Amino acid sequence: MKSLDVKVWAVRKRDTKTPSYGVRWSVAGNVFSESFRTKALADHYRTKLMRAIRDGEEFDAGSGLPASMEVKKSAVSWYAFALRYLAMKWPHAAPNTRDGINESLTSVTVQLLDDRAGRPSDEAVRKALRNWAFVLPGLTIGKSRTTYGMFCTGYLRLLDRSPISLSPPQPVRSSTR
C-alpha cells in the first residue's frame, strides 16, 4: 500500500557505547528508523527522504521507503552470473584452479536451490553442474558433451528458471557439509 502521509523527525544521537545517529520517520502511522555511524550519513539519508516528500513520491507502507529508494532486484539470475564468472576466469586459470572454481560454483549453486517438489536430488544436480554446466564448451569430462547434455538439459533448465537472483542477501543454509 502506498501513502503520502509521511512525517520525518530530526536526526538524533543515540546513547550507545559507540556513537551512532538515528533517523526516524513514519508512513501512514507506521514508524521506521535507520542507524548510522556518523551524523553526516544520517543527515544525508534524512535529506533523501525529505526530497522524496517534496517531489510528491508515494511511500510504501510496508518498507517505509519511496520508490526512488527501494532496493531494486537484479535482473541477472545466479546461474547466469556464475556462467559469466566462469567464462571470465576459465581461459587464464590453471587446471587445479579450474577444478576449484568448478567445485565452488557447484557447491554454492546446490545450496541456493530450494527444496521443492519434483526437484532432482542434490547428487544429480551436482553431477550436471560439475560435468556439464560449469565446464566451458568444447571440453569433455567422461561422456561426450552431446550425450551428457541431453541427460542434463532438464536440470539446467530448472536452474535457469530458478528464482535465485542477485539481490540483497537472504539467509541460506550453510554451504559446508
Write the layout of secondary structure elements.
Elements: E1 2-3, E2 6-8, E3 12-14, E4 20-27, E5 30-36, H1 39-54, E6 59-60, H2 78-89, H3 95-112, H4 122-133, H5 145-160
Antiparallel strand pairs: 1-6, 2-4, 3-4, 4-5
State the share of residues found in helices, binned by percent: 40-55%
Number of contiguous helices: 5
- Global Rg: 23 Å
Judged by helices, strands and strand pairing, the structural class is alpha+beta
Count of DSSP strands: 6
What does this structure look like?
The chain is α+β, with helices and mostly antiparallel strands and 177 residues long. The protein has five helices and six strands, in the order βββββαβαααα. The protein has helices spanning 39-54, 78-89, 95-112, 122-133, 145-160, and strands at 2-3, 6-8, 12-14, 20-27, 30-36, 59-60. β4 (20-27) and β5 (30-36) form a beta hairpin. The longest helix is centred in the middle third of the chain and has 18 residues, at 95-112. The chain is elongated and about 55 Å long. It starts with a strand and ends in a 17-residue tail after the last helix.
